[in-house]
Structure formats: structure tokens, C-alpha cells
Amino acid sequence: MPRPAFAVHVQPHAHTPMGAGARHRSPTAAPERSRAAPGRSRPLRAVVVSAAALVAAAWAAVPLQAQDERMSFFITSEGPGRGADLGGLTGADAHCTALAEAAGSTGYDWHAYLSTIPADGSPAVHARDRIGPGPWFNYRGVMVARDVDHLHSDDNALSKENSLTERGTVVNGRGDRPNMHDILTGSTLDGRAYIGEDYDNCRNWTSSGAGRTRVGHHDRTGGGENPTSWNSAHNSRGCSLEDLRRSGGNGLFYCFGTPSDGGASEPRRTSPAGAPEDPAPARIR
To answer: Fewer CB within 10 A of the end CB, N or C, for the chain?
Structure first.
């Protein structure tokens, strides 16, 4: 009976005793594949290893679950590409909205967590006043903060693992290459406009040249006056994308959403008698 063709591939390097059986095979048997020269097999192995590495990197950037419908907080997966020139607060808000909608989020009005300093007769704008009352949930449905005061306390749930992008991916932090943990805010620890000597807040988010702005560390580690602060770790080296990258940033910023109908991110349920109940527990979907 003829040997199955696939049998020769299961043990391509099996040793056959020398003798008549090894030299004279049945003419109906499938010919064995000759052993490839070592020099010829190495390129194939290199291609396989490289392909495996690419697949692993691709999987690392893919979220493991679907977006929670209550997502109301994220870090931008990319900036507009002009460093700290975001087109002012209006341009930054529009960027948040565009990214959220492209990721499939609906029913929220989006605002960038950014402050501006007094300029040209206009008063300062504080990031904490732009983002609604809370609570806020990330891509996975984890509540990162209950309200504005909780957000600016040491008890919030902001971290590298929880401060995800609108697509559910983790932003590179300290120790990753490239490091992108510097997040634009222009804010103090309590979410108000940062004001300092020779500080122009990158002309209130319209400059990609000289100047400085305030940044936080989304991974809660690094250098600066407040290394563990998510919103006010230190000042940037400049306003250009190159300067932001040199100090561990990439022109990214936080976005917070408020329901378009004006309600809270987590609506309160009502009992049959009409009395409000506690918010429903978070569900991962």
C-alpha cells in the first residue's frame, strides 16, 4: 500500500538505517523532500519570526472588548499634528468630537480638558469648568471619576491602564518606545489655568513654535515638580511637535463627554414609586 504523501512531512529529519530498504523504495511511494541546506532555511525562519512579531504588535493595539456605550472619557489616539497648536479650544473640542464619532460613540458632547490664560481682554478658562459634572467612564466602562472634585483628588481611577484612547488602546508611557505620557492640559493640580513667569500656554493652543504649556502624566510617573500628577506634572520644552516629543509627549490631550440631552453620564434609575435609586452597576459590554 503506498505511503500517504503527508507522512514524509511529519518527520522530515527521521533517520533511516542504511541498507537496501533505505536505497530502494517502492516506485509508488511519495518521494521524500530533500533536507534543505542550512543556509537556505534561515531566511524562511527569519520571515516567520518577523511576521509573528508584526502580528503580536497588531494585537497589542487592538482593544479586547467592544466600546462601552457610556464612554465619556478618553485620551486622543492622535493629535491634530501641529504640536500644541490645536486650533484653540474650539479646534480641540472639534478634534475630540471627530475622534469619538469615528470610534462609534454617539449621544455625547465632547470637550477637551484644557485651560487658557487671560489674553486680549478675555478671562482665563479653567479645564475643570469645561467638562460637565460627571461621572465619567472609559472605553471599557470603568468609572474613572464620580464628579469634578473626585477627578481632582488622589482617589480617582486614572492610570495608564484606565486612561485609554477612544478606541480602547493603551497610550505609551514611561519605559515604552516612544514615550508619550506627557498629556497637554495647561492646568494646575485642581484643574484651573496654570499661570507662571514667561509662560504663554502656547498662545492658548494656537502656537506650534516657541513657548510652553503645562502637561500631566497619564501613567502617573516620571519627572517634574509633580511626577505622579495626571494633569500638572511639569511644563513642556516648547510648543512644536518635535519639542513635545523630546520631553515624552506627542500632542495628545484628554477629552470628556457630557450627554447631549444634558443628563449625567450614568442616568439614575427610578423605582416604581418614583423615588430615585442608586445608579446601575457598571456593565462591561
So the answer is: N
Collapsing DSSP to helix, strand or coil, 143 comes out as strand
Task: Decide: 208 and 241 in contact? Cβ < 8 Å.
Answer: yes
213 and 239 Cβ atoms separated by less than 8 Å: yes
> Cα separation of 112 and 109, whole Å?
10
**Grid cell listed for 255:** 477629552
Residue 220 corresponds to which cell in the numbers above?
502617573
pTM of the model: 0.72
Q: How many CA atoms lie within 13 A of 53 on its CB side?
A: 6
Q: What domains can be seen in the chain, in order of their start residue?
A: 73-259 (3.10.100.10)
Helix boundaries (H) for 15-154: 20-23, 38-60, 88-102, 148-151
